[in-house]
Amino acid sequence: MILVRTAPGNRSRGIVQAGPLRLPCALGRSGPTSRKREGDGATPIASMRLLWAYRPPCLPGPRPPVLLPTRHTRPHDGWCDAPRHPSYNRPVRLPFPASTESMRRGDRLYDLVVVLDWNLRNRRRFRGSAIFLHVAREGFAPTEGSVALHPRDLLRLAPFLRPGVRLVVLP
After folding, report:
1. What is the DSSP letter of 64?
2. Neighbouring residues of 71: CB distance < 8 A, sequence distance ≥ 6
3. Is the pLDDT of residue 58 over 90?
4. How much is the pLDDT for 66?
5. I need a surface site. Which of 62, 85, 115, 155 has the fewest CB within 10 A?
6. Given this model, what pLDDT does residue 65 score?
7. pLDDT value at position 60?
8. Residue 169 Cα to chain centre, angstroms
9. What secondary structure does DSSP assign to 86-150, as a single string?
10. CA neighbor of 99 nearest in space, from 127, 129, 119, 122
11. Cα(125)–Cα(38) distance, rounded to whole angstroms?
12. Is 78 within 8 Å of 17 (Cβ atoms)?
């Protein structure tokens, strides 16, 4: 299990705990919530399975030894975040007729993306989409709802990213 707790004094920052590791992270700009809604900028308080990972085919530096099923992101990989579309909160092929997020980004935030089981198995419209574990912005700027770590810390966390593990966001 990987635990995520809110950092003292800042609801959009957290601490990831896995085994002996304690790593700083960014959370959604609205902090954790038990009432996640599309576009609210909150990180869901939940226990989420780690499903699979995306990573670009060519990355400089060390490659995290992720034991999850992993696929290389391609230029046409996207994620639908349009709540009224039948493909809501699903991977899609770009270009796509509804609102999407590209899984291949120039800002390196998705150099490693772990898809979390938030609103996927029992998907409900407007309940939130694209909740991932990924690389943090400079200075741990808040996310739109995902959990984000420094690239160095993702490397340290990589041995814990395997099938059967859950990421648990606590209130």
Report:
1. P
2. 52, 53, 54
3. no
4. 86
5. 62
6. 77
7. 64
8. 12
9. TTTTSEEESS-SS-EEESS-TTSTTSSEEEE-SSSTT--TTS----EEEEPPGGG--BSS-EEE-
10. 129
11. 8
12. no
